[in-house]
Amino acid sequence: MPSRGVPSRPPTGWYPKRGEVYLVALDKPRPAVVLSVNALNEHALDVCLVPITGVQHREFRVRVLIRAGDGGLNKNCWAKCDQVTTLEKTFLRYPPLGTLPAATLANIQAQVRFALGLL
């Protein structure tokens, strides 16, 4: 997982973009990928996120591999697509760590749909 110093203040007009990875204040600072669409992210006070873990669980089909380097992560991690959550934007540490490749985001999206029974 990445380590980061003091977050900087977001610029005026900033909003988190779909596919960006941020450190978020959950039980402990951990990365999460923004799942909600930009049209909502720009105007809403909160965003929909998928938390990311460094612990692999082979038996969970809904955990999507994020390769080291993707999204600014420094080791292989897994998106916990069965644990979608919503947080206020103030819980996101600016700036983002990075952005996931489109194929990885599409895989996360598919596994979230599966986990929620939306297929």
Pick out its properties.
7-stranded antiparallel sheet; alpha+beta; 7 strands; 119 residues
| Low-confidence segments | none
Q: How far apart, in Å, are the first and last alpha carbons?
A: 31 Å
Order of helices and strands: EEHEEEEEH
Approximately how much beta-strand content do the residues carry?
A: 25-35%
Describe the structure.
The protein has two helices and seven strands; from the N terminus they run E-E-H-E-E-E-E-E-H. It is an alpha+beta fold. Strands 1, 2, 3, 4, 5, 6 and 7 form a seven-stranded antiparallel beta sheet that branches. It is globular, with a radius of gyration of 13 Å.
Task: List the topology elements.
Elements (H helix, E strand, L loop, with lengths): L19 E6 L3 E6 L3 H6 L2 E8 L9 E4 L10 E4 L4 E4 L3 E8 L2 H14 L4
Antiparallel strand pairs: 1-2, 1-7, 2-3, 3-5, 3-6, 4-5
Brief overview:
By secondary structure, this protein is an alpha+beta fold.
